[in-house]
TrEMBL record:
Transmembrane segments: 31-55, 100-126, 146-174, 217-240, 260-283
InterPro entries reported for this sequence: BP-dependent_transpt_permease (IPR050366), MetI-like (IPR000515), MetI-like_sf (IPR035906), OppC_N (IPR025966)
Gene3D superfamilies the record matches: MetI-like (1.10.3720.10)
Organism from which the protein derives: Streptantibioticus silvisoli
Name of the protein this chain belongs to: ABC transporter permease
């Protein structure tokens, strides 16, 4: 007797048809297609940054400081987006800032998703005192604003890219845990789980083979939204001087440097701000589209 999860297809053809249906549904959402295209460009820019940037992002030239963008009076095509207060090329710095933002967003989402999924699976499947203990820990963390908790931890441990990813990851696991727990609570009483127990399948195997595949859809949606939140949080920390080291180019650090020149050299702050806004918007639109594809009935009422 073979026990399978209802989410697992009975045949390869069924799985292929299901994937094609999901893909067609996603492609019908024009905003999602545009958002995915923007994300693809951002990822390529981040990966190929050393090859495509015209200048070293930290190279200073005080003789060309605060040079306007190329299309404005006084601008030069050698610096398409102008230069900052130290004569550094804005285009190069914005492209390099993409690397840090995407790395922090993806890293924090991966860490939070791993921790939160494990907590949710254990709490939802076993129930009892593990469920009560883990959910009370989640309640305690929710009582503290995430950004304040991140500020406190980074202020105590010190700044650095690794610390930022760890802090944003461990402050974001609660959302994953709660969603996974609620899904598992409804799945653990289903027939396929009961039958698996009856034939002697271990709890670990049930969780890995039957429960985990059934919670991947909501996890993908939460992960995309968490990426956007982590990107904004990293920019906020860098703006306050508590993110990655100052010599590392970040959009938040560029915003902090450019705030004093908004009246005279607006491009120093506007371009990194636009990059941050566009990236966050693209990630959020992608998350919304994935949510609709995963469960259209629940979100199109």
């Amino acid at each position: 007797m073979t026990v399978t999860s209802p989410v697992l297809p009975a045949a390869a053809g069924t799985a292929t048809t299901h994937r094609h249906t999901l893909l067609r549904t996603l492609l019908r959402n024009r905003l999602a297609v545009v958002a995915l295209a923007v994300l693809a460009v951002l990822v390529l820019a981040a990966v190929l940054a050393p090859l495509i940037v015209p200048y070293d992002p930290n190279a200073q030239n005080l003789l060309q400081r605060l040079q306007p963008p190329a299309w404005l009076a006084g601008g030069h095509r050698a610096h398409l987006l102008g230069t900052d207060e130290l004569g550094r090329d804005m285009l190069s710095r914005v492209i390099y800032g993409t690397r840090v933002s995407l790395l922090v967003g993806a890293g924090a989402a991966l860490l939070a998703g791993t921790v939160g999924t494990a907590v949710g699976l254990v709490a939802g499947y076993f129930g009892g005192w593990p469920d009560r203990l883990l959910m009370r820990l989640a309640d305690v963390q929710l009582a503290f604003p995430a950004i304040l908790l991140a500020l406190a931890v980074i202020g105590f441990l010190g700044s650095g890219l690794g610390f930022v990813i760890l802090v944003l990851g461990f402050t974001g696991w609660v959302s994953y845990a709660r969603v996974v727990r609620s899904e598992v609570l409804s799945l653990r009483t289903r027939d396929f789980v009961t039958e698996a127990r009856a034939i002697g399948v271990t709890d670990t195997a049930i969780i890995r083979r039957h429960l985990l595949p059934n919670v991947t859809a909501p996890l993908a949606t939460i992960a995309t939204l968490h990426v956007a939140a982590a990107i904004v949080a990293e920019a906020s920390l860098s703006y306050l001087g508590l993110g990655v080291p100052k010599e590392t180019v970040t959009w938040g650090g560029m915003l902090a440097d450019g705030q004093l020149y908004l009246g005279t050299a607006w491009w120093v702050a506007v371009f990194p701000g636009l990059a941050l806004m566009i990236t966050s918007l693209a990630v959020n639109l992608t998350g919304d589209a994935l949510r609709d594809v995963a469960d259209p009935k629940a979100y199109r009422r």
